[in-house]
User: Fold this.
Amino acid sequence: MIDQDVLTRVLGTAVKSGADFAEVFAEDKRSTSAGLDDGRIEQVTSGRDRGAGIRVVKGDTTGFAHTADLSEAGLLAAAVSAAAAASQGGGGVREVALTRRAGTQVNTVERSPDEVPKAAKVELLRRIDDAARSAGASIVQVSAGYGDSRRRILVANTDGVLAEDEQVRCLVRMSVVANGDAGMQTGFQSAGQTVGFEMFDSVDVEELARDAARMAITKLSARPAPSGSVPVVIKRGSGGVLFHEACGHGLEADLVAKGASVYRGKAGELVASPLVTLVDDGTMSTEWGAIGIDDEGHPSQYNVLIQDGVLTDYMWDYLRARKEHRAQSGNGRRQSYMHLPMVRMTNTYVLNGTEEPDDIVRATESGVYVAKLGGGSVNTATGDFVFGMTEAYLIEDGEITEPLREGNLIGNGPQVLRDIDLLGNDFAMGNPGTCGKDGQGVPVGDGQPTLRVKTMTIGGTAA
Amino acid sequence: MSEFESQLQHIADAVIAQAKPGEHLEAYVSRDSETDIRVYEGEIEHFVSAQSEGIGIRVIRDGRTGFAYAGTLDDRAIAEVLAEARDNVEFGTPDEWAGLAEPDGVDVVRQELWSDVLAGFATDRKIELTKELERLAVAADSRVRIDDANYSDVAAENAVATTSGIRRSGRENGCYVSVSTLADDGDETQTGFGFSVGRSPEEFDLAKAAKEAADRATRLLGATKPSSRRLTVVLDPFVTAQFLGIISSTLNGESVIKGRSLFKDRVGEQVASPLFTLVDDPTNPLAYTATELDGEGLAARRNVLVDGGVLHGFVHNSYSARRAHTASTGNAVRGGFKGTPGVGCLALQVQPGTRSQAELVSGISDGVLVQQVSGLHSGVNPISGDFSTGASGLLITNGQLGAPVREFTIASTLQRMLLDLIEVGGDVDWLPMRAAGVSLVIGDMTMSGA
Assistant:
């Protein structure tokens, strides 16, 4: 993307006034998206985002500037501006010797979406629409989206790192509305992978569409969710977002350092049920949160965060690791070249336990079975969270019975981790997600086996 | 008009001049510059100085739409964007209502959206006031720590041109400061935030932002989980504004024509308490999101959506209006150059009552003042109207505010909540959102706690 000589000169300029560290992050991203709604392909969109962000660190201060101009002049101007932002003061000239890091791509792309005809992408949406609409007479509306992106990144810094990665992702998502006597209900499905268009050789979009339709139709006969504290069984692959939000964020070193995490000072302590081992894994090939390198040029890693209930480590980016004189963990990520990196998750999941999932339901006399969690929010300082249940059922006498309408699941992350009393052996990853932090979104994955939480609060609308 | 504006307009004009016979073109061009400063413990944690620009081109031919964008304005990139958008047209489904907005003769209500004071405000003063906000928040209460204090400003310019005859440009700038706080009491930690917004930093009220940040963090210390029951709920202005955001999606003309609104086919019906009048008015200069133009370049205007509880109408852009056989209400919204115009409310406001929040509370025997909600968006089904949201606040007993409560949910349906509205407060708060806040009293809601 940029000549090595140019990078060397730009980094030299960035640290000329005595900064400790400088970094060039360049990105060239092409994306295609298409939307279907109300039976029509509304529009195909093509996008191009290309530019570089230059970061200069001096002491505890970071200066940052970005430019869409990748010429040497454009980069030098951004470097001067970032250096000025990082602060003032004298210093010498530093020579930077860049060493190209061997590629660490997490997967191979067989069919780059650039080379796939747009007609083939649009066809997926048609198939989704047809499959959902033939799932039942009550289906009244279908909307679906397709997206792909090819993101090439380059990172060079004054520690000598020079690394590149190409991240290719494809995604489909759909929402299906069914109409019944008691109003309308919606079902959702999505699938996304860090691979090329070959994803659709193995992912059956029609099956996803039928599943979204089934969810909407099932909810037509749903009754209002109860209110109060009950045992909750969370189906495999549907509740990983809870661990991402309610535990994962609290294990990000930047939040820990500021004392804005419930997990500060808890390394080595039992923070969860001994059944729980929680991992963040950027190397998980093809998964939505997979990366070859992070956005600071560090290779992605498999990091154990909680082992058998004991907090083993936090997640780290360059700045936090430097401060603690330790290694980065491949968790420095950013939304685009216009953003500063910070500590972010990749694929975050709970490893398998030993129980048969059916036994977990049978062992629950009465409670709620959550088959799909929706979006939510969490306060990382307290661990308090709220998640919508987009598909849930009652458990009565050890059996899954009636469907429930929308409700929220509320609780406290650390408490839920301690309250997991049954853990299944049926691990699955969940839907692709976009994690938002400090105004930046990055692709993440999550997963977990079927599990039971002793007690959680359901906020339903039943009287 | 600034030089930048005319330059952007020139770029947009040059694109639509390339239209081929039978081709409708729209070019939207924007350029932003922003400053972000973060302070922690009296030091600058980061300082971001950034400029960005880009173009989005929409092509419509034979009822088919194609779109492309690029985050740069160099000539080669623009030519590539136009070519891509043309190529993308091939794949759209013909739509008899597809089309660009057309000039509708509605005059623009001129507003002061640009501050020369902000444009000339010195960087070191921005840094200094961010540090000052941090100091004030720490000083406000001994239990308070700081997560970070932030200053942010943005100056944005844009221009739109269409082959249907729209040619408009504008610019605006604005700034805000915010502080995130933590409060500790023994093992317990709670969080808070405070902010202040202005066209220029001279409009900031740092003391108020610091006090709110400290209050929000400390007021929940020692909070317990309340028992589940039905009771009267008072929504704090900040919470009301978030609910209005949800309600606005049900009044979106596009949702209505696609059968996704619980209010479709209900125009003229009593859908809310007679106390409820809802207006979308981006021409009100007090609104944070006040604007002169909508996302398609039509004049922004005042629209009454609910009048005395009776549903009056929906908001539209030119496409949804055409499909609904009505005219655009000037409610095209656009998230920058990377997207095509959608439909949305621009600046919602509930017509206020007269009494203060304390007066509203004084008449309630068993209730809760909800000061914060979480997961509201995920807990609402805007199609069925069911909702449930995590909440925290203060119990109300015999007309008095009492113990803090947290980790509970409140639930109802949007339809029932609007009908159960008992009173609107007089305490309008122009928040930095697409809706203004005001206290609302809801007669009967389900609170789920212990």
Q: What stands out?
A: The CA atoms of residues 28 and 201 of chain A lie 27 Å apart. The two ends of chain A are 61 Å apart (CA to CA).
